[in-house]
Amino acid sequence: MLEKYSTTAPEGWDKEKIKQENKELISKIAELQRVLYADGSKSVLLILQGVDASGKDGTVRKIFSAVNPLGCRVYGFKKPTEEEYAHDFLWRIHKVTPPKGMIHIFNRSHYEDILVPTVLNLFPKKDIEKRYDQINQFEELLEANGTKIIKCYLHISKEAQLESLTDRIENPLKHWKHNDGDWKSRKLWDDYMKVYEEIFDRCDKVPWNIIPSDKNWVKINHISKLLLNTLSDMDLKWPGLDTETFKK
């Protein structure tokens, strides 16, 4: 399935024009985010999934660079802690879903609890199988209660990933990003892709967006448009004056 989707810019795209468009999109997102916060009736959950070095951190920094921090939260999900293991796998996710008026961003998400256990064979297959339906039900619950979910898979080529991982070793300013585990996971690329494709097929009650991610400016453009369109379709409004002072 993923082979059908390009990881690069669409034909004819001009880098400088798109980068200028991105600035405008980010500004409009910031404007609507303030209305979302003031309106207080709906919320947005942006889910970013992708292999190591696909640019999840940079995407968050860029797109949300102008928003009011009061109305935005970012959560990253790594290996569960002992406390998290003691609960159902969605416990740590559900407690940080966005309340009304907020945008929350998940840098990785509940899908890690299918991906990693499947590839590394951590749990019985029958237990992991149940998680597909449980995730669908969980996301339907969130949307039924006013949270709009945007799911993005950052589709990077294996060659572009190698370039990014290598840069983390060669560039002193990026040494802090280096993790030997990323190289180990790269060796299992095909296994992870296989599981991702099953996720796309089975967890599609809320649709997936496959984002070309070899170039940051392309990735930012696609995700910014998705977020802006979502906010625009929410029919958000600034609240009216709520006071008795001027009614007398």
Structure description:
The protein is of the alpha/beta class and 248 residues long. The protein has helices at residues 15-39, 56-63, 82-85, 91-94, 112-119, 125-144, 158-170, 180-186, 189-202, 216-232, and strands at 43-49, 72-76, 103-107, 147-155, 208-212. It has a single domain (2-233), classed as 3-Layer(aba) Sandwich (Rossmann fold). The N and C termini lie far apart (65 Å). The chain is 48% helix and 12% strand. The chain has ten helices and five strands, in the order αβαβααβααβαααβα.
Strand and helix map with partners:
Elements: H1 15-39, E1 43-49, H2 56-63, E2 72-76, H3 82-85, H4 91-94, E3 103-107, H5 112-119, H6 125-144, E4 147-155, H7 158-170, H8 180-186, H9 189-202, E5 208-212, H10 216-232
Parallel strand pairs: 1-3, 1-4, 2-3, 4-5
Helix pairs in contact: 1-10, 2-10, 5-6, 5-9
Structure, briefly:
The chain is an alpha/beta fold.
The CATH architecture can be given as 3-Layer(aba) Sandwich
Compute the CA-based radius of gyration.
19 Å
Largest beta sheet, briefly? 5 strands, parallel
The CATH superfamily is P-loop containing nucleotide triphosphate hydrolases
- Cα-to-Cα separation, first versus last residue: 65 Å
H/I helix tally: 10
- Our count of domains comes out at 1
Structural class: alpha/beta
**Which CATH class applies here?**
Alpha Beta
CATH topology: Rossmann fold
Mean pLDDT: 96
Spatial sequence of strands, sheet with the most strands: 2-3-1-4-5
The backbone outline, from C-alpha atoms, is globular
Task: Give the proportion of residues in helices.
Answer: 40-55%
Beta-strand content: 5-15%
Q: How many DSSP E strands?
A: 5
Q: What is the chain-wise order of helices and strands?
A: HEHEHHEHHEHHHEH
- Unreliably modeled segments: none
